């Protein structure tokens, strides 16, 4: 008697709901139907997947609507759309990483890392294509340029950014100046990178005559992009340093600047360091400001204050847009993708380092 | 100079206690100047930021000035600066609009997936994956769009021109290489997506749990809960996220410079043609000199003003939202 009651109750609760397997039936039907339709219009895996997805979403929604009502149907439609949007968002990521790995790995060699494009001409590329010999020329000059320009940009922007953040958090009292700085730092985060490049170019053109293009001009351009990021992240980190630490230090008679240097900043150093690393990761991949400020070099230039320089992003850009040999563009394409792989690895490494720094040096607070 | 009055005060201290007082005051003087130097440096750094931003505007204006006085016939195109800048402003807006139209719904969907749909344990990892999209340099996106996406889309464009060619934006003949403004817009959408996603995700996660639970307790489905509790709360946040994404899309250079084979302004999105300000500058700056240089800098100034306005509006919305959620 009681078991029969339980049984009816369970069926009462699940009455009007689709059984769990229904969704898989719809999925199977959608895949088969899509295969049929795509075979009609010329078979292609991408088209097949697209049609199957559309069939499944429409079919599953209709089936749910018939069995469970329109509210449930709308809910499940939303669920499919949300899951679908995530899958769509991942596609370009996977495609980019796959492309860079597939096309970049063959170009990576010892020579690629340690030779420049000096003396590599269209004839060299034609010869290597005809004879089947390895592609000559490498990205050494671009790697060195990237490191140097980024280093100088960091040297300029990290002190300024740190001090400005210290001012905002420790000295600012919310006056007009503080609000102006906060506001314009926010605005600066939105400056298009090419405008930052134009600014540096215009500044140095006024100071040292038109056409001044050196690595340092590029560093200044990158600093404009980097400073707001450094200020923002440092500010956030300084704000979460507990006030008790500052007060304890003041109570011992320690000067404010000593308190900041010895107590506040060391407490927040993990977050600050990871913020700075992320800022560097952001500017390492910038192309547009370098294009208009550092020119383009094919040989090694170690002097940031004189002569044109090349960086990995501009190297990629020029190798693709103006191949060294217009008739055999494969050599240039291969170099470009190999450089792209190095660049992505650099950026990813910086991101990982930032996360590790934040984790390892995190302050041990009681909270 | 500053140490002299301190030294005098130390020797002429009327109260006595020569040893202890003098050591205290001498420390004091050293500490005081340290304090002054440090706070001065911090203040200076803050002011320097304002000066830099001001400098960006001033130097661009100075370098762009020759354009105003120039003979209209000397400007590229031969019809003055207005006729030169108008098509590329429109092109910039078209590309950014395409990017935003694609990325906003998708970004909201992804953000909802991470905040409300994905299994809790995996949500962090998924969020990190989407953030990786932001870590890829723009030139790599450009190269990807150039080498992978454009050839794929060329096929689709051919189909669009054949079947939907009567709509002006899909008018044929379609580009054979696929290097069109629509491709550029799609690449931009991919680049803007992580910005919109991460900002909306933050705001979705801030939705008061009580509101959500109240909606669910009334028998709302998950969609209805999101519709009634999450989206109204996050509306301003989504708008500002989209605005910040717009700012990025307007100023993005490399993706467009590599992906789009530019040209005159055309209504069709699937033909080659159109150009954006940023790409125009990047493509022409290295060889430019004289008046052409001023032209490009003036174009950069226009871009600067446009993105500045967009960003200020976005920040304004964010700050209003901050007050609102603080009061909650």
UniProtKB/TrEMBL annotation, chain A:
Gene Ontology terms, MF aspect: phosphate transmembrane transporter activity
Keyword Membrane: yes
InterPro entries recorded: MetI-like (IPR000515), MetI-like_sf (IPR035906), Phosphate_PstA (IPR005672), Phosphate_transprt_permease (IPR051408)
Listed GO biological process terms: phosphate ion transmembrane transport
Alphabetic keyword roster: Cell membrane, Membrane, Phosphate transport, Transmembrane, Transmembrane helix, Transport
Pfam families assigned to the protein according to its UniProt record, in alphabetical order: BPD_transp_1
Chief place where the protein resides: membrane
ABC transmembrane type-1 domain segment(s): 143-354
Tagged with keyword Metal-binding: no
GO cellular component terms listed in the entry, alphabetical order: plasma membrane
Transmembrane segments: 21-41, 47-68, 80-101, 149-169, 181-208, 214-231, 336-358
Subcellular location, record wording: Cell membrane
Top-level division of the source organism's lineage: Bacteria
Signal peptide, first to last residue: none
Membrane topology: Multi-pass membrane protein
NCBIfam families from the UniProt entry: 3a0107s02c (TIGR00974)
Biological role stated in the UniProt entry: Part of the binding-protein-dependent transport system for phosphate; probably responsible for the translocation of the substrate across the membrane.
Family per similarity comment: Belongs to the binding-protein-dependent transport system permease family. CysTW subfamily.
Protein name per Swiss-Prot or TrEMBL: Phosphate transport system permease protein PstA
Native source species: Arthrobacter echini
Lineage: Bacteria, Bacillati, Actinomycetota, Actinomycetes, Micrococcales
Gene behind the chain: pstA
């Amino acid at each position: 008697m009681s078991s029969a009651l339980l049984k009816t109750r369970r069926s009462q609760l699940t009455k009007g709901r689709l059984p769990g397997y229904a969704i898989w039936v719809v999925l199977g039907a959608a895949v088969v139907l899509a295969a049929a339709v795509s075979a009609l219009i010329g078979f292609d895996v991408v088209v097949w997947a697209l049609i199957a997805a559309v069939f499944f979403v429409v079919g599953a929604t209709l089936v749910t609507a018939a069995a469970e009502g329109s509210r449930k149907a709308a809910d499940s439609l939303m669920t499919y759309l949300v899951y679908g949007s995530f899958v769509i968002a991942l596609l370009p990521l996977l495609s980019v990483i796959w492309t860079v790995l597939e096309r970049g790995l063959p170009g990576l060699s010892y020579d690629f890392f340690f030779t420049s494009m000096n003396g590599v001409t269209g004839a060299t590329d034609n010869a290597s294509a005809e004879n089947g010999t390895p592609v000559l020329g490498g990205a050494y000059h671009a790697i060195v340029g990237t490191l140097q320009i980024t280093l100088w940009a960091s040297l300029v922007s990290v002190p300024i950014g740190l001090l400005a953040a210290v001012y905002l958090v420790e000295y600012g009292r919310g006056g007009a100046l503080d609000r102006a700085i906060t506001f314009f730092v926010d605005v600066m985060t939105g400056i298009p990178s090419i405008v930052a490049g134009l600014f540096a170019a215009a500044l140095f053109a006024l100071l040292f005559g038109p056409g001044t293009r050196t690595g340092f001009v590029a560093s200044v351009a990158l600093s404009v992009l980097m400073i707001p990021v450094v200020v923002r992240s440092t500010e956030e980190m300084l704000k979460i340093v507990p006030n008790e630490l500052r007060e304890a230090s003041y109570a011992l008679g320690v000067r404010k600047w000593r308190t900041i240097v010895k107590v506040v900043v060391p407490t927040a150093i993990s977050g600050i360091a990871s913020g700075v690393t992320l800022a560097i990761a952001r500017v390492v991949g910038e192309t547009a400001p370098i294009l208009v400020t550092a020119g383009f070099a094919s040989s090694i230039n170690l002097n940031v204050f004189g002569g044109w320089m090349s960086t990995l992003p501009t190297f990629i850009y020029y190798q693709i847009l103006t191949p060294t040999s217009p008739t055999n563009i494969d050599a240039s394409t291969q170099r470009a993708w190999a450089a792209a792989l190095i660049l992505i690895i650099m950026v990813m490494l910086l991101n990982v380092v930032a996360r590790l720094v934040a984790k390892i040096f995190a302050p041990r607070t009681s909270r | 100079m500053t140490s002299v009055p301190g030294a005098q005060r130390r020797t002429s201290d009327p109260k006595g206690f020569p040893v202890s007082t003098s050591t205290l005051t001498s420390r004091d003087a050293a500490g005081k100047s340290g304090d002054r130097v440090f706070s001065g440096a911090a203040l200076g750094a803050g002011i320097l930021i304002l000066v830099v931003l001001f400098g960006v505007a001033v130097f661009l204006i100075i370098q762009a000035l020759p354009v105003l006085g120039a003979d209209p016939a000397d400007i590229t195109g031969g019809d003055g600066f207005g006729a030169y800048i108008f098509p590329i402003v429109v092109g910039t807006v078209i590309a950014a609009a395409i990017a935003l139209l694609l990325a906003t719904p998708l970004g909201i969907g992804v953000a909802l997936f991470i905040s409300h749909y994905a299994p809790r344990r995996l949500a962090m990892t998924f969020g990190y994956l989407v953030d990786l999209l932001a870590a890829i340099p723009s030139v790599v996106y450009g190269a990807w769009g150039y080498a992978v996406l454009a050839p794929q889309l060329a096929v689709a464009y051919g189909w669009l021109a054949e079947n939907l060619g009567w709509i002006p934006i899909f008018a044929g003949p379609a580009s054979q290489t696929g290097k069109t403004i629509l491709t550029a817009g799609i690449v931009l959408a991919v680049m803007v997506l992580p910005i919109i996603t991460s900002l909306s995700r933050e705001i979705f996660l801030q939705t008061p749990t009580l509101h959500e639970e109240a909606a669910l307790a009334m028998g709302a489905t998950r969609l209805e809960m999101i519709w009634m509790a999450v989206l109204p709360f996050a509306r301003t946040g989504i708008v500002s996220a989209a605005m910040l994404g717009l700012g990025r899309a307007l100023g993005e250079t490399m993706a467009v410079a590599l992906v789009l084979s530019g040209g005159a302004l055309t209504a069709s999105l699937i033909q080659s043609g159109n150009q954006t300000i940023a790409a125009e500058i990047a493509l022409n700056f290295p060889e430019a000199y004289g008046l052409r240089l001023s032209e490009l800098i003036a174009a950069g100034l226009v871009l600067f003003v446009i993105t500045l306005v967009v960003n200020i509006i976005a920040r304004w919305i964010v700050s209003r939202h901050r007050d609102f959620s603080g009061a909650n």
